[in-house]
Predict the 3D structure of the following.
Amino acid sequence: MNPRTTPRTRAASVRRPALLPTAGLSVLSVLSLTACGVVGAAGDDDASASPSRSYDITVGLLLPDKDTARFEKFDHPLIRDRVSSLTDKQGEVVYANAEGSKDRQSEQFRKMVADEVDVIVVNAVDAKAVAPDVERAKAAGIPVIAYDRLAEGPVDAYVSHDNELVGQVQGRALVNALGENAENSKVVMVNGAPADPNTALFRKGALGELDGKVDIAKSYDTEKWLPEVAAEHMREAVKEVGAGNIAAVYSANDGMAGAVIEVLRDAGVTDLPPVTGQDADLAAVRRIVSGEQYMTVYKSFLLEATGAADMAVAKVQERSIQFDALARDVVDSPTHKDIPAMLVPVVALTRENIEATVVQDGVYTVEDICAGAYAADCAEIGLTS
């Protein structure tokens, strides 16, 4: 099955989701999946055709790397299982991981176009470099949904989070942690990859909270989000600013936060400054429990991944009402305007709300988090099974 659709025109407005109270996130997960995410429900815009519509769908899924733990552990299996559920187990997800290489991702993308998959969901290694492949898919009549990162080229839809809000949450957390001393505090910024369009949004949001409130002593972009590159940046910052003078570190994600903390430890820092993160990796949640990392941004993998699967299947099956219900926002890329989008809310995860976020949503169990050396720290904050 390979029906093709034509992109629609949306008004040039963007609705930003509010920062959810942590206790409401699981409720939203349930409501989103049972209400607007149902494909093939009663009241379909083309109900007369639904009995004969094939569910034999092939979804191509392209993820960027294996260094970010969530992609292999959560995103891929969640999308795979959701597509299977939506298609009475007839749909298939063909998966490829670029392992950080834009050239490898391009090869994988071209193969999926040649194999005539029905729709491609892509989290681009390099948003600009992937544009010719998006064009190639467009010419072949294959819809492309940009996932987590907004790709350039004529993508049909985008599923992610309000990434500027992510940066705002991180920056606000640092200012709150520094308190009355914020104005005179030296902060080091370890940003993400310059090829990732989300990096600029994270940084913009963070700077909106940090500018004029703290002293940004050093700021770095980190090639491919690699923790080893972040460690190099942090070693330079320690040398130039002084380990004892660094009052806080803005780290754009959890993998880099771990590297930053290790460098500070190696430099002899025992009273670690507040360090931010993003993605709620298990290692980061454990560091938060132990007090090594101040916070991370929890972005519901369930909502994002199942939303992408819902949109992909709705797009292929030409169910425009379901698709429009999912894509209620619009975003602009450097090459295209008014791209239909689903922007999933985010939550600041700290020691105070671990149970109400990743545990309640079933991402990790208390046993996962509190294993071994972390048991005493968990007991200290009342995190028990």
Summary: The radius of gyration is 21 Å. Residues 164 and 205 are 5 Å apart (CA to CA). Confidence is low (pLDDT under 50) at residues 1-52.
